[in-house]
Design brief:
Blueprint: H1 12-25, H2 37-50, H3 59-72, E1 81-86, E2 89-94, H4 96-104, E3 109-118, E4 121-128, E5 131-138, E6 153-162, E7 167-173, H5 174-182, H6 194-198, H7 200-213, H8 220-226, H9 247-260, H10 292-302, H11 317-338
Antiparallel strand pairs: 1-2, 3-6, 4-5, 6-7
Helix pairs in contact: 1-2, 4-7, 10-11
Length: 339
Amino acid sequence: MNAPATQSQLHPVVRFKQDLDKLQTAGELALPDSVPFKAFKNAAVVAVTDNPGILNCKPASVFKAVRTLAGAGLVPDGREAAIVPFKGEAQAMPMVAGLVKVARNTGKVASLWAEVVYEGETLEVWVEDGERKWNHVNEDGSRLDAMERGGEIRGAYAVAKLTDGTVEFQPMSRAEIEKRRKASANQKSDNPTGIWEKWYDQMALKTVIRNLCKRLPMSTEDMDRIMTEQDQPEPIRDVTPEVKPNLAQRLQQQNTEEAETPEQEPGQPIDGEILPPEEDVQDEPDIDPSELEFAEGVSAANDGKAVADCPYDDDQLVQKAHWLAGFKRQSKLNSEAGA
């Protein structure tokens, strides 16, 4: 009688299916009710079957990508999202269609779309009757030929129409898009690499959509899903019986330790902390680790940058607070890890 195959002898795709079942049983995937586990699992299995390179990546990164997309309610079917291998790491890549789906599922967004602006094109923006208007045409004012467009991307813009008829518009220049790209954990080079190199137009569209969504009437949970980024730096548990604390738990534990054991003299500011005037202390923004700016701060700390490298100005108090909070906390974690 043949002995049953051990875990190491199983075909990688079979083992992947089993691991997905374990994640679901353990309640690790956090899929929204609108996405059946079977549909998500089937799409993930097709993805790794069509691209075997995914399962050659580090297992922890593969399941990080799976968890990331599940938490966002996005199916890795190549339309809503994809799992992309890059330098031995698997990355979750939400597609534009996936971000639009999340926004429309809120019930408050009737339509959401974005477009890039190529060289030889211009985006005119003005205010008329109290409303922002725009026109995207060739530089000579003629209409665009959709079949002839291409070349260097100059920028992008996103448009959302809410169910109450309000129209929101968000343009971003190439410089602004690049600023966002370079804040990502895997984009240290001046030139785009990995996902950004292969699909710069898609990444530009996603960047401007995320920027616009910050102004839309969306719940915190909806924002968490729409802001899902493929290069999140925070570690996620692998498929193993051992239970390790996630980022939120570590931050909570760290906050408790900081409250119990002050590390500085009374009245001395913590490096990277925003200290508003005393009369405005009650208006200091609450820090949310799920915000994109918080993740940017974490990435900056991991890249060895300084507090002075914060990309946000004093007139962007909320964004700056989140960036500095992420930078400070990750710097401390890095310091403790190297101690």
